[in-house]
## 1
Amino acid sequence: MSGHVLVVDDDRGMCQLLNKDLERRGFDVTWRVDGREALAVVAGAPIDVVLTDLRMPGFSGIELCKAIVAARPDVPVIVVTAFGSMENAIEALRAGAYDFVTKPFELDMIALVLERTVKHRALQEEVRRLERVVEQSLGSGELLGQSPAMRRLRSQIDRVADSEATVLVTGESGTGKEVIARSLHERSRRRDGPFVAVNCAALPEALLESELFGHTRGAFTDAREKRKGLFQQADGGTLLLDEVGEIPLTLQPKLLRALEGGHVRPVGSDAEVAVDVRVIAATNRDLEHRVETRTFREDLFFRINVITLQAPPLRASGGDILLLAQRFIDQYAERAGKKVTAMTAQAAKKLMAYHWPGNVRELRNAMEHAVAWTQYDKLVADDLPDKVRDYEEQSIAFGGTDPAALVPLEDVERRYILHVLDSSGGNRSAAAKILGLDRKTLYRKLQRYARSGSSGSSTEDGDTSSG
């Protein structure tokens, strides 16, 4: 454990004892026997936590605590007292102390308290850093995120933005595939043209064809006026076909013709219309599996899969969870007219522990809930939805020796396969490659798990999210 601890005690022997023990445990330690000297150290050195005795001549631990809170509120103070009364505890907490301990104490206990406090401060620092990043990024149009996965995605977008090639954006539901498509459009030469998006899963087949390609007057019962389709509306710009895997088989040849020829034929028309459109397709389905099951045309798959971008799941984005959470706090607090500016370290810890199956969409909803629920200027853990606040990660422990806690090899394999499938965004092709299995073998195993009721949230098409 690393961290710079300032020990303050008028007993030089106690300072030397704590210095020796804490350095052995990996802490950096500075110690002073005078409170005013300690305050000068805090003002000029990168201290992570102060451990001070309560009763000291001249400048007491309470006075030191108040001075540090006033000058360096980011540095937590732990007060040590030999008296241990409730009055002393209340006095220390009112002075702004993060925690207090009583003498006599065990060195292991002191180390544990310090370790917990250093982690708390580090998390608070991360929250403050993310607040600054959010403030700087507002209105920039950037994809928000500093994780390696998001930096890699931004780099990929920059490389292919000016290409006219069709892009397939894959990823779980709720990962922001439309945001990626808009980012591609805004960085391209077509940025001054229209950006048009359609959810192919939201429209029945007959209406979807008319929406995409347009129709003439009288083409069908309700076609009272001639109407341009979305391809024509996106002329000179970008068309996003969201949930492209849901396009009916009968409509797929017409879409393929439009992509290959740059022409569309409105419903009811004998003439084709030329269009200049860059198409971006998005899906949360395993299209390769759909090709194998003949529910998606292979030639259309190859046509839209010229360039592939993977939207990373939120659980793989590390600190981006807090970054996005802070953005949503700012948005919903402003909308609700509430002075909510941040979250506590404990709330941040809960957000980082949760697995976010619904990705960014679920995080947005959780923050809207928390902002509406909170009574404070910072979100606390109790403000979060129950499933986030009470979530406990489950894992397999291999280091145990209790035979009753060990599991069969088949159970280990099942859990690991489901873990890899979940980590790969439900994409069975990607999971099979990671596992070193052919896809048919993986499908058979998943079908067996499904029959036993232990297949997790995976579906036949690899969609692991209901959002």
Note: Residues 135-141, 454-467 have pLDDT under 50 and may be disordered.
## 2
Amino acid sequence: MAKDYFLGDPIVDKVMKVVMALASETYVTRDRLALIEKKLNEKGVVYSEDLDSYQPTDEEQAAIDQRRDEFVSSILKPIIED
């Protein structure tokens, strides 16, 4: 029985999984770095507790969500464009 693959080839699908895993890690790193920069600008020092317990405001969360969506779009653009 033949398997259906998202991108038509099992190897390409596996490469895509790797790319998406790396993209996910990159996004988390970018998001964490943005928070570190924010806290450094505010206090001049950053403690891990500050980062771990941080809760963004609704406005900040909207900006975070927008940056995330733009990042995902940039990663997927080569796949979805004709």
Note: The chain has one domain: 10-76.
## 3
Amino acid sequence: MTMSDPLGDMLTRIRNGQQANKTVIECPYSRLRESVCNVLKDEGFIRAFKSEDRENNKKVLIIELKYAEGQGAIRQIDRVSKPGRRVYSGVNDLPRFYNGLGILVVSTPQGVMADHKARAENIGGEILCQVF
């Protein structure tokens, strides 16, 4: 069966993994998921990630979750733009999540990046998810 929202599935796996105090989670590989993981790693929300080949030519992403003082580094992670309702924003209309403490992951023509980097490069795009 095909998945209608692969990125939403990855975010849910991360959320559930942190609630269960897992150190490592796995999810199927895609370039978009890898790009979002790269932003989460650069912003300090996950410790590391890597892609690994499995049997039948399947790739998986192995994501190492980050904890500080027994709490997960990610307090809240939500999907914004969904398959049924895409959310686009220009650079001047990018909202601030938790008054700038959280980040928005934005898919731009220059690639997937955090909202503060998109503002610095003066480009907008599709708001994929919000993380705090």
Note: The longest helix spans residues 6-19.
